[in-house]
Amino acid sequence: ARNRAFAEALRRAITPGRTRVADLGTGTGFLAALAARAGAGSVWACEAEAGLAALARKTLAANGLPRLRVETGHSTELAPPTPVDLVVAEVLGNLATEEHLVETLTDARRFLAPGGAMIPCGVEHCVCPVTDAATQRAIDVWPGIGFDYDLAAARRVSLNNLFVRTFAPEHLLDGGAAAQVWERLAFPGQNPSRRQGSVVWTMSQAVPVFGFAVWWKATLVPGVTLSTSPLAETTHWQQIYLPLLEPLDLRADDRLHLEISTDTRLSAGCRVRWSGRQMRRNREVARFAMDNLAGCL
Fold this sequence. Notes:
By secondary structure, the chain is of the alpha/beta class.
């Protein structure tokens, strides 16, 4: 799914013989090769890992593209020799922004010629309450250690983390149909590294909520999308699980408020905080606050 989507996006975005392309974080050089095969007027690529950059050069040469230029270094420290018409960067993680997608593409605006475009041109993050206990049981092993030993502090550290998991629709509120968008990003654009979004659900029935599943949908070019949703075609990416320390016992008409804050500055790594409250008839009955920084020792 990933390769087909990027191939189609490049085909649509490239005018043969004219479009100048920059591929940021090229890896094996695969997207740079797709751009060249789509007829790009020129292709410049970079890769931060020296060993991977060397591999990209060998792989491109083995595929008949020995002259395609691959520079070693992070794109924020480099620049193509001339302005480009199209920047492509597949630096998407299980959390779309964890590999510094925002910082990479915000900086790469300086590469673009007037009217230039980016792939992806937009990303949405979605979130949905998890109503099945299986995922929580698999990670919350501390209560079962036994031997009359209090591991509450270790449990708190452990659960203040992001867990990469695969969810089926039946694990989610309303089979995943209750998912809401908490973040929208457009490229090229001025997207801050510190961001936050909030959503509210009103329960139609009584359900337990153990945490939240997060996934993304990327618009590569208009009309070509790629998603990690449990309701979409399977990709090599998975969803992110944001656990709670204690499940929420929600009743019909309760409101569940959630706020997610992220900090993806290069110096910060990827900090994620999720907090919220459960409301019943305008009365707060539960509150939670989690932070993956609290999950670091």
